[in-house]
Amino acid sequence: MPVWSELLGHLKGRECHALEVGVFEGRSSVWLLENILTHPASTLTVVDTFVGGAEHAATDLTDLEARFRANTAAHAAKLVVRKGRSEAMLRELPLGRYDFVSIDGSHEAADVLSDAVLSWPLVKPGWLVCFDDYEWWIDAAPERSPKLAIDAFLATMRGRCEVVRKGWQAWVKKVV
Ligand SMILES: C[S@@+](CC[C@H](N)C(=O)[O-])C[C@H]1O[C@@H](n2cnc3c(N)ncnc32)[C@H](O)[C@@H]1O
Question: Ligand 1 centroid to 103 CA: how many Å?
Answer without folding.
Answer: 9
